[in-house]
Write a structure and sequence with these properties.
Length: 297
């Protein structure tokens, strides 16, 4: 018995991803292992998840794309961090001094960092957050991030990088790096203890709680102080754990009823990187599109 298969017409008739817009560049790939479980930079600790996270967020530092061996370079910063050495009284001393008790990293942000369009940053005519709800019933009509008709944006600030570090120190976020980083960042252990004492029935604004090792010098300058000397700390600044998080997003995702619908930072990231997530259905399709607010690169 003989079978003959013929095809008529032009193009590939069985293309699983037909081009809707021939002028649009699209890269298709397959998740070969398990779908990402955590996209919250404070929680994620898997290589597969970082493939998404590092396209969306901009930590202070990154790695040169081509140089080998790998070389750090500014990513969210406009220059490499300035490193200062302090004695126990906080006085600056020379590198190599026997009196060094702390190391201070001064981070100066790029001034063209800007968040992707996001409903958490949308404001009403009075300048207040547009999407804050008191009950789950009020937010019932919103099931996906794309259901929110209004979005907003703003520049990335030093306080956002500080907020990201504080989220890492919040035990409720169960960051895998809390125990390790608390050994180095000044005041992180005390911050974790103070957070535990706070009432958590409602959203807690971490901006209202100080951390001794974090100093916001101005809108685009942040200082991080660590105990003693730990030269490897600069490499941690290239990891997504130190990505900026706007306080507005943390508040937005704590709206009543949002968690039950996967409207969380762990499911819908918000960053200033080259791409933004527009669809997250791990069992079917995850789609990222260009961030229209991304700076020249």
């Amino acid at each position: 018995m003989c079978f003959a298969f013929t095809a008529c017409g032009e193009g590939t008739w069985n293309n699983p991803n037909p081009e809707k817009d021939p002028d649009k560049q699209t890269y298709f790939s397959v998740i070969t292992r398990v779908p990402p479980k955590h996209l919250d930079p404070a929680q994620s600790y898997a290589t597969d998840e970082s493939l998404f996270i590092m396209q969306i967020y901009e930590p202070p530092l990154g790695y040169h794309f081509l140089k080998r061996p790998y070389e750090l370079e500014p990513l969210g910063l406009r220059e490499m961090p300035a490193v200062e050495y302090l004695d126990r009284r906080g006085n600056q001393v020379e590198k190599g001094s026997s009196t060094i008790a702390y190391t201070r990293y001064v981070l100066k942000l790029r001034e063209d960092l800007r968040y992707q369009p996001h409903p958490a940053l949308a404001k009403d005519p009075q300048g207040k957050p547009r999407y804050l709800f008191e009950t789950a019933k009020q937010s019932g009509r919103y099931q996906l991030l794309t259901d929110f008709p209004e979005t907003g944006s703003r520049p990335v600030m030093a306080k956002d990088y500080a907020y990201g570090i504080k989220r890492m120190a919040d035990p409720r976020n169960k960051s895998p790096m809390l125990g390790f980083m608390a050994q180095y960042i000044v005041g992180m252990s005390d911050f974790t203890k103070s957070v535990k004492k706070e009432s958590r029935e409602e959203w807690l604004n971490l901006e209202t709680l100080p951390m001794d090792g974090l100093e916001i010098i101005d809108e685009t300058t942040l200082a991080i102080t660590i105990h003693d000397q730990y030269p490897q700390f600069v490499y941690w600044l290239a990891m997504h754990f130190f990505a900026p998080i706007p306080v507005e997003a943390d508040r937005f995702y704590h709206n009543p009823g949002f968690k039950e619908k996967n409207l969380t930072l762990d499911w819908w990231p918000i960053g200033s990187g080259p791409f933004m997530m527009v669809k997250n259905d791990p069992n079917s399709e995850i789609v990222m599109e260009r961030n229209p607010n991304y700076h020249p690169d």
